[in-house]
Amino acid sequence: MLFFQAIFVVTSALTATCMTINSQDVQTDIEKRQSWKSIGCYTDNVSGRGLTTPISVSGAITNEGCQASFSAAGFSYAGTEYGGECWCGNSIINGNGPAADGCNMACKGNNAEMCGGPNRLTTFQSGGGSSTTPPSNPNPSKSGKRGITYDSNNVHGDSTYGNMLKGYSKITWGYDWGFKSNGLDSSIEFVPMLWGLPKIMDSNWVSAVQTAKSILGFNEPDLTYEQSSNMLPEAAAAGYKSYIEQFKGQVRIGGPGVLWNNWNSWSSGGSYSSRTWTQYFLGNCSTCAIDFAAIHYYQDCEPSRGQSGSDWIISNVTHAHETLKLPIWITEFQCYGSDAQQAAFLRKVLPWLDTQDYVERYSYFGVFPGFLLDVAGTKLSEAGMVYVS
Fold first, then answer.
1. Where in the numbering of this chain does the WSC domain appear (predicted)?
2. Residue 317: strand, helix, or coil
3. What are the Cα distances from residue 116, in Å, to 61, 64, 107?
4. Which of 29, 220, 222, 376 is deepest in the core (most CB within 10 A)?
């Protein structure tokens, strides 16, 4: 979210699309669900869905076919309705719950079993599982999580600001939304990013990957503002297959950097959230080798009604991991507030991030004047001092 400091309003005219997953593709490199258990018949309502994400399945509907498709997309709950609809989610919401009856419509693909009914879901819950494929390369050191986001678009035209954090033992890696380091000190591991969808394979991108340990994919393809890469989920998946997938086994590959706390607004795909955008992307990229998820988080340091900004990010990061079942890189996060408020936020959040095994790396936004640097850009701000300590 490079230099984006306002609440965005999405006005995309793009058409929302539902992902289609073929039944033969249900085994993915990302997640394999081991088992599903029936939890019975549940209420549903078109004005307040219990499970909010529809998935298309090739062929006639059965409960098993829907479960397999939901497994491929990484969801925890599966439901069938009206004999021929598949719905999924990670919780049953909008006041829906167990129903005494009503799941009385035979599945279109197997009339010996019931697939819900009018406003009723035949519902199943995943029994959990583990990845079918280990990461291409070993995980980063747990002691080297903390990174920097910097940019060469400054008065120096290079990584001068980023290099102001070299020598601090907590800072181990960095990126600048591109695949050129622009002079980042060699003591900080540079992680190249393919920011957006290229027209052809860029030889400079290929060269950057050759010396990298990990790479980052598209920047905020789930959003539509000027400095996001703004793609439909299926376009992003096609881009991964064309320009990123070929490096599997050579480097660790990150998923697209998505704004995970955009859970109740539009995305670049249309009238669904960034979280749903991510599920659609994974459904269209079910054979892609993705070693870790990349998420973003932006919110007030001190939300209204006395709520805790630190609690909010902890909840979002936890939810991302529980949903995606992948190691997490928080490649951008920031709370909106004064320097002192951001410093207080970091004092609470950093110890928690450092103790979560599934949080591999994180990077606070960003090494710029008025952020982790003072307004003049000559020294670390209060928040910057907390970040490197």
1. 35-127
2. helix
3. 11, 13, 8
4. 222
User: What is the domain partition of the chain in residue ranges?
Assistant: 33-126, 146-388
Pick the CATH number of 146-388 from 3.40.50.1000, 1.25.10.10, 3.40.50.11540, 3.20.20.80: 3.20.20.80
Residues 191 and 173: beta-carbon distance below 8 Å: yes
Q: From the CB of residue 91, how many other CB atoms can be counted at a distance below 10 Å? A: 10
| Beta carbons of 121 and 41 less than 8 angstroms apart | yes
The tokens of 14 are what?
């793009």
| E strands present in the chain | 20-21, 36-43, 53-54, 56-57, 77-81, 85-89, 106-107, 110-114, 120-126, 146-149, 173-175, 189-190, 214-215, 252-259, 292-300, 328-336, 359-364
Q: Alpha-carbon distance 342 to 189, whole Å? A: 25
Are the CB atoms for 175 and 168 separated by under 8 Å? Answer: no
Q: Which two tokens stand for residue 93?
A: 């919401």
**Strand pairing class (328-336; 292-300):** parallel
